[in-house]
Records
---
Amino acid sequence: MSAPVPWLSVVLPVYNGEKYLEHALASVAAQADDSIEVIAIEGGSTDRTAEILRSYESRLPLRVVSFPDLHNWVASSNEGLKAARGEFACFLHQDDGWLDGRLDALRARVERFPNASLFLHPAYYIDPRGDVVGRWTCPLPAGVELRAEQVIERLLVQNFIATPAPIFSRRAAVAVGGLDASLWYTADWDFWLKLAAVGGTVYDSRPLAAYRIHPDAQTIRRTGDAAEFRAQLDVVLARHLAAWEPSHRLASAARRASAFSVEVNAWLAAAVHGRKPSVLGLVPSFVRLGPNGWRRYLRDSRIVERIAPRCRIGLASRIAARPG
């Protein structure tokens, strides 16, 4: 007899994760849901990662798939999706975690909205010690099934979705081609936009996951390549504006807010890595947004929510002070 199909596949890219991995795995085990599967894509770690994974094999329906030398979270996530069997899937990075009751809450949403393909919720920002330092929310109405245009118009301004927050239809993920492996930083933003375009989205306003911010995060370290970082932002925005506008008229204020958000994100990346760009260069673009653009940018970018936690833990100054 074949094994029952899990309702959820948890894709966990892992590489040298001993510092935080046990917290991530424990947060899944605490859900006490034996109708899921956890697929760890292990990239040839040289620390205690393999030992930690083995210690959870009796506590979780855990399957470890080895890909030595695969250290890219995007490529690892795609391999996990290929191996997944669940009706729904989600990503969990080795430094993030779930809050108690997350799966019960999301499964209830899935049962209430069976035709939706993307389910979201806020997340708490946590620091390297696991202390809560902020909250990451989505500028969306809660408790209803949202049409594609309601989500995409706002999501084009900024990726406001924390990686450990969504669950999504695995079939929809396969249909949209998974994550774009050429985008090491913006692959998740591109992926959420693709998923939002092919089905309904449901937002639950309760924070049900934790997103850890720390100096050793791969995406933070790699934003030091300012030109490539800016290019990836531009690629995703241009791609989805081109796909969306022929069939749906996007308000000019939303287009301007999206373009301005790219400028701000590129400026922030440069500032975090100690290049001290002048803020005056942003002023003309901000003025051109006009009142409607200002409102859209402030609502959808979650700029204060994103910056405040990093300032609280002094992340920017610690990265800028590093040599090399």
---
Amino acid sequence: MQVGNCPNRAESSGLDDKTKSLVLVNYFHSMSSKEKTCEDNFGDLINMLRTCYAAVGNRWANSVAVDYKRSEGGGSFQAIDTLNGKLL
């Protein structure tokens, strides 16, 4: 969850490996926090999806893992709706 950075897990294939069809973005703190969940999942999540899009060779994530807390407006659902629009 570093702004402008889409890190790759050491045990995973390189981000530019287009032979892999799964593009998974994990977007949550190591230690869960109810108070931060809605804030994190609003604008920052869609910005991270855009950052990772560029990092993986202009491919949108097809799986996104987030901490979830129901909220009014925005949040992870708005980010996923935006992402789904990009995949159509």
---
Amino acid sequence: MARPPAVPAEEKTRIVLSVLAGEVTVAEAARRAKVSEQSVGNWKRAFLEAGKTGLAAGKSGPSTREQQLEAQIADLTQALGEAHLEARVWKKSAEGRLGPSRTSR
């Protein structure tokens, strides 16, 4: 038997919200969407768990992604500083060997 086409996330959200609001039962929602009741139950559980996780994170601190981005910014800032210093050293070295350039300040 062929597998039914995947249900888009927006449709899953609409279905879960209608179940949570009491507009339809899980069985009725499953029948309308042509999926199993277990699928609707799984969507509902995943939806509620993700919401719980979002609320638990709240304002307690930066997310893992934010921490990763902040670390990346720090690394890039350090690399930029090092590259700037290296360019200054090379410029000074070149001036010592070739004399001051017309563009040097």
